[in-house]
């Protein structure tokens, strides 16, 4: 067995000592969405600091805990605060929480994030359903000895973001009259925002939005057979698109401004996953 898998099993045991809860959906909350976890029907919580070996998030404003509970009838595990590669963890630690949620029983992974808009048709506040991703600029979380217990050495990535889940989310957005764009997400390492030339490159490669998370999590989830969906909140236009400098403050302000709609859509989508 690999060290990575041993660590994962130790974290799994540590969680199972606390709860036997069986989630169906795993939800990772991006910037501005953290409060969603406080608004659900909570069964129990586990602070990351109480899970041995678990990577701790260092970003201010990111709470670090798993919240177990129900959204409608659907049992969920929510990551209130995620770990980013730019914090300095090895990629296998960054994706450990995602794998752990899969091992705890989650069949569906719902990813959310804040992202910079590359597509000129977007504005700060646009919500973008992720239809595909580019992860080529960050190390693959699957490098190293394959964890056969989780999935195949050469996993297929032809439909990381499942079309059936996308259709459900699009239908819910329409019902709720929440505008929802669609696009390709590209992950960079951060922590610096991109240069204008990098954003131009990403656009030429087919990306509509850029960020510092998500794609690596989607890869390990797909590797272990979880069905993945994701929505980005475009908090700012990416570097060079408007000529304005970027700031973390703008990212937070926009994320807070659209949080209500974003939370409504995520909750409605998860409730609709009850039937699949
Ligand atoms: N680039 C990368 N990550 C981001 C951005 C951005 O412009 N906005 C929010 N997260």
Architecture overview:
By secondary structure, the protein is α/β, with parallel strands linked by helices. The radius of gyration is 17 Å and the shape is globular. The longest helix has 25 residues, at 248-272. The model has no long low-confidence stretch (mean pLDDT 95). It has a single domain, classed as Rossmann fold (3-Layer(aba) Sandwich). Helix content is 30%, strand content 23%. A five-stranded mixed barrel has the order 5-8-7-6-9, surrounded by four helices. Helix 1 packs across helix 3 and helix 4 packs across helix 7. Hypoxanthine (HPA) binds at residues 114-116, 193-194, 210-212, 235-236, 238, 246, 251.
Q: How are the elements arranged and paired?
A:
Blueprint: H1 3-16, E1 25-28, E2 41-47, E3 65-71, E4 74-80, H2 91-94, H3 96-103, E5 108-117, E6 127-134, H4 163-175, E7 181-187, H5 196-204, E8 209-211, H6 215-223, E9 227-237, H7 248-272
Parallel strand pairs: 1-4, 1-5, 5-9, 6-7, 7-8
Antiparallel strand pairs: 2-3, 3-4, 5-8, 6-9
Helix pairs in contact: 1-3, 4-7
The chain binds hypoxanthine.
CATH hierarchy: architecture: 3-Layer(aba) Sandwich
Query: Can you count the beta strands?
Result: 9
- CATH topology, anyone? Rossmann fold
Gross morphology is globular
Quick structural summary:
This protein has a single domain (3-275), classed as Nucleoside phosphorylase domain (Rossmann fold, 3-Layer(aba) Sandwich), CATH 3.40.50.1580.
